[in-house]
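Quick one before lunch.
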Amino acid sequence: MGKYVIAGNWKMNKTPSEAKALIEEIKPLVKDATCDVIVGVPFVDLQVALEATAGTNIGVAAQNCHWAKSGAFTAEISAEMLKEMGVGYVIIGHSERRQYFGETDVTVNQRVRAALDAGLTVILCVGEYLEQREQGITAEVCAMQTKIALQGVSADEMSRIIIAYEPVWAIGTGRTATAEQANEVCADIRKVIAALYNDAVAAATTIQYGGSMNAGNAAELLAQSDVDGGLIGGASLKAPDFATIVAAAK
Ligand code: PEP
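Model of the phosphoenolpyruvate complex:
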């Protein structure tokens, strides 16, 4: 299966000085991690995060990027800007972007393309609403989001795509998918990648689970055969909890 990756999504939390303090707290706790460790910070924290993580095993992610290289897009940030700063990763298609900021599958695909062109690694978020799960269309929704987001992405470029399966009903709600539910959908997504590319690409792709993963439930979720890591919101803001999740990713 794919390489284990544990990524924190800090969302709109932490000022630059608070970000520096949290990273300083996280650093010694994850220095012996056997998985990749990433912190996804607000744009204004990127510089301080890059400085604080220099020479460590912690990567830095932005939480979005625009699809254009430059232009009249007030307040937006391009993938090229992130790349030049030294940022390695970008989260794209988070459900909060889709839900509150009009992000669509098509713009997710455009942003993925721009991020890859700039040399970034993408954490691509997909996941169903509760209503869709209840309608029995979880696999279809996740397949559709994955297929559209990956349009124009080559098999070689898949080495720079991490997929985060995040059921919307589990994000920030304290309601976690069961380990079986998480594994089932991650396995479905892997089948979609196998059909789009081939079995080797599917096996090598990191597929994370995200949605109220915490220090208490991480080990069980991460032990599932098709779960290769986690995208962590709330629990990534507490250094000991984040470190416990990192340690569970073996
Ligand atoms: C997220 O923001 O991607 C997330 C999974 O949040 P939480 O862990 O708080 O549910």
